[in-house]
Amino acid sequence: MENKDMRHSGSAASQSAAEQIDKKIADLGGWRGEALSRIRDLIKEAAPDVVEECKWFKPSNPAGVPVWSHAGIICTGESYQSKVKLTFAKGASLPDPAKLFNSSLEGKQRRAIDIHEGEEVDAGAFKALIRAALALNTSGKTKAR
Fold first, then answer.
1. d(C-alpha 9, C-alpha 19), whole Å
2. How far apart are CA 76 and CA 88, in angstroms?
């Protein structure tokens, strides 16, 4: 099945999503590349069957946005000059006892975690959040908190 988001020009069209994400991490380098790589590893540990994709290619972001899905989007990983932003598609419906969400808190659907240079995300709490997002996606329900 062809991914519509893959229909763009350039060599990325011939790469797998995993290769595209590998390249994005390598191109970022520094603390942002390290943060995105660590988060990716934690996602794969928490949800071994997760599907990796790159979506939303545009001239200002030709490498696209890494997306992790299973029965729907779990989260996306975007990089900016001063942060790596992990946006959970149904974050407002997820329990967050460790208070990892620190961005987009006013929204009715999404929630995000902004990671700045020198910051670490609690691995156990993050994996619990990934598992909760996966469970919500596979339950077919969206429950407001």
1. 16
2. 7
Tens of pLDDT, residue by residue over 15-51, are 798 999 999 999 998 999 999 999 999 999 999 999 9
DSSP 3: -
* Whether the Cβ atoms of residue 49 and residue 100 lie closer than 8 Å to each other: no
Q: Residue 2, class by beta-carbon neighbours within 10 Å (0-12 exposed, 13-18 middle, 19+ buried)?
A: exposed
Give the 3-state secondary structure of residue 19: helix
* Half-sphere exposure at residue 119, Cβ-oriented, CA atoms within 13 angstroms: 16
The model carries a pTM of 0.84
Q: Which residues contact 64 (CB under 8 A, 6 or more apart)?
A: 5, 12, 20, 24, 54, 55, 56, 57
| Side-chain-side CA neighbours of residue 114 (13 Å) | 9
Residues 6+ apart with CB under 8 A from 144: 92, 93, 108
Size of the chain in residues: 145
Cα 76 from Cα 67, distance rounded (Å): 4
